[in-house]
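User: Sequence recovery, please. Input:
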């Protein structure tokens, strides 16, 4: 038998959990249930939310037009309007927040942003953490010294990405010699990072080599996903 939300223990009710622990503690279906407020006969708001997220995964529900959204069983015009308004408001806030973040969408912009690396006498390995619109969320120097697998571990590169909910990671390091040919160590480090990104669902977007004379993009050279 399906329990109505009112029949759940207070600590299990989404609104009570939101009030007590904050929205970040709620699962996706609980947040959606708060917006839906109620379900329909034989189906609680939680069950309805789970069903909608199962049928429309990965944000597809938020991309449905209002006319299609309101025709879903258990939704209707009132709930569809509430969902549509909440999603549009979130999108607008995200766009406003994005305006203050640097756009890093080409290797040339990486080279420009990391101009300080061109004069370094040691190798610096830097990670850039981007959102879904290629806006820079965070920049971190991962290591200083000759690039080796032991110096650049996937854990050190991807931990900040998970912490900041980054959509992708872009890495770069300088060649003080000015030689832009990727070394075997460069290739192996890139291969390991790309494999770790695939496992975590946070892709390695590129590896850019930086020198005074210019740059080299692993992605543009077709080296990003190499298996050897």
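Assistant: Recovered sequence (228 residues):
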């Amino acid at each position: 038998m399906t329990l109505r939300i009112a029949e759940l223990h207070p600590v299990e009710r989404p609104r009570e959990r939101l009030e007590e622990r904050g929205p970040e503690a709620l699962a996706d279906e609980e947040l959606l249930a708060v917006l839906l407020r109620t379900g329909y006969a034989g189906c609680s708001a939680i069950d309805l939310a789970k069903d909608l997220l199962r049928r429309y995964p990965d944000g597809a529900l938020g991309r449905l037009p209002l006319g299609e959204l309101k025709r879903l069983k258990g939704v209707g015009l009132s709930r569809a309007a509430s969902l549509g308004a909440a999603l549009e408001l979130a999108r607008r806030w995200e766009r406003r927040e994005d305006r203050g973040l640097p756009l890093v969408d080409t290797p040339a912009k990486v080279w420009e942003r990391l101009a300080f690396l061109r004069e370094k006498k040691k190798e610096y390995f830097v990670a850039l953490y981007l959102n879904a619109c290629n806006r820079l969320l965070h920049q971190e120097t991962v290591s200083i010294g000759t690039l080796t697998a032991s110096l650049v571990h996937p854990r050190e590169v991807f931990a900040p990405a998970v912490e900041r909910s980054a959509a992708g990671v872009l890495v770069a390091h300088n060649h003080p010699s000015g030689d832009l040919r990727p070394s075997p160590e460069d290739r192996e480090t890139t291969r390991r990072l790309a494999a770790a990104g695939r496992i975590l669902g946070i892709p390695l977007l590129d590896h850019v080599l930086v020198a005074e004379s210019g740059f080299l993009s692993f992605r543009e050279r077709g080296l990003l996903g190499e298996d050897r």
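DSSP finds eight helices and five strands in the chain.
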